[in-house]
């Protein structure tokens, strides 16, 4: 008996022998197989004028214009991790244009070299719109991710390059990981 949403039960609904136990097991399986999420804020920045600050109601890494600005995030992969669904760095650009960015990841488990696995999104541009939340997909850089891994992520904004036409600060809010 597979279904895709929880069924609302009446107050005082009792689980009894028979089909009700099957329904309860089905409910628990459904809840267990829903994707989980992990939010990882940036903790360190590098580059002249960059900082960790508040933007509106969001703490963020302020990747200022006209410098090579870097934001760093790190996390450990939860023990209940089995499969990566999505990994995205979330930004709010202060201007409209092309954002020149690159991403590097390194990760490994206890007892391994910290660079056992690496991933790269080479330097390129993505079109962004002022004040609109934008997700930079980095799922491909975490292809070998496993429970217990320790992960380091570096996002670089190369606004010194003419290809970066945002001409304003880009606010890096953090990394969103969705997994089973």
Topology readout:
Layout: H1 19-32, E1 36-40, E2 44-46, E3 51-55, E4 58-63, E5 68-76, E6 84-93, E7 97-108, E8 117-128, E9 134-137, E10 150-158, E11 170-179
Antiparallel strand pairs: 1-11, 2-5, 3-4, 4-11, 5-10, 6-9, 6-11, 7-8, 7-10
The major beta sheet can be summarized as: 6 strands, antiparallel
Helix amount? under 10%
Number of helices: 1
Q: Name the beta content range.
A: over 45%
Separation, N- and C-terminal Cα atoms: 21 Å
Question: How would you spell out the order of helices and strands?
Answer: HEEEEEEEEEEE
Number of DSSP E strands: 11
Regarding quaternary structure, what we see is single chain
Low-pLDDT sequence parts:
none
Secondary structural class? mainly beta
Shape: globular
Radius of gyration equals 21 Å
Mean pLDDT: 90
Task: Give a brief rundown of this model.
The protein is mainly beta. The chain has one helix spanning 19-32; strands at 36-40, 44-46, 51-55, 58-63, 68-76, 84-93, 97-108, 117-128, 134-137, 150-158, 170-179.
Report on this model:
- With 180 residues, the protein is mainly beta.
- 8% of the residues lie in helices and 47% in strands.
- It has 1 helix and 11 strands.
- The strands form 2 sheets. Strands 1, 3, 4, 6, 9 and 11 form a 6-stranded antiparallel sheet that branches. Strands 2-5-10-7-8 form a 5-stranded antiparallel sheet, with no helix packed on it.
- Strand 3 and strand 4 form a beta hairpin.
- It is globular, with a radius of gyration of 21 Å.
- The model has no long low-confidence stretch (mean pLDDT 90).
